[in-house]
Amino acid sequence: MEAMTVIAMETVMKVYDPALIRLLQLVSPTLPTGSFSYSQGLEWAVEAGWVHDSRSLGDWLGEVMQRAVCMVDIPLLRLMYHACYDKRLEMLDKYCDLLLACRESHEFQEEEKQRGRAMAVLLAGVSLLPENEWKKVLSRSQLAGFAYAAQQWDIDVHVAAMGYLWAWLENQVLAGVKIIPLGQTAGQRLLLALGDKILPAVAYGMTLKEDEIGSSSPALALAGCFHETQYTRLYRS
Fold first, then answer.
1. What is the CATH number of the domain that holds 51?
2. How far, in Å, CA of 161 to CA of 75, rounded?
3. Is 234 a member of any domain?
4. Position 10 in a domain
5. Are 116 and 91 in contact (CB under 8 A)?
6. How far from each other are the two terminal CA atoms of the chain, in whole angstroms?
7. Are the CB atoms for 56 and 50 separated by under 8 Å?
8. Domain ranges, residue 168
9. Residues 155-204: pLDDT tens digits?
């Protein structure tokens, strides 16, 4: 029995990747940045009848992934990651400005900043953020904090981007399951179907240059704006 345990441990150590463990921690829904409390306009899209079942939810999330997250978050994650690697705080600050400019409603901007502050507090709490100047900039954007943590933990930027997109997708599917509502199995089917789009979305987003960054999703922008004054809400504004 002891010999079998040793062999099993040796096998595990051959494939063990500390960076993968850290990525799983970084994309976990238990990460205390408050992602679960935002629907990113989806709640209003359901109220308006734009999203009403599993199929329309899949269409909505697929479009947002390809026309917004892929076009803004993924290329900016790459740029922020390299700014952190090069210790260029002024460039990171510039990319935070660009990200916030691409958030097309007050609600989206506030979400980014509120989650950024939570991420900075978390990074400081796990002794990953020693300098006050970095904390001030990282507090402006959740994406910047994610990029900083990924770089500090030696997570490959492409792998980090896939993890980021998965975490976004999982949170949005869970929001849809609650709001429409749908069953948990329907949610898992959506994750399977939309999960296949993550790799090509990341691959494309990674090719975009700084002057090509920008969202192309008017429906998402409108949903975010109208959600700010929606009468009955489960998710914060």
1. 1.10.4190.10
2. 9
3. no
4. no
5. no
6. 56
7. yes
8. 39-227
9. 999 999 999 999 999 999 999 999 999 999 999 999 999 999 999 999 99
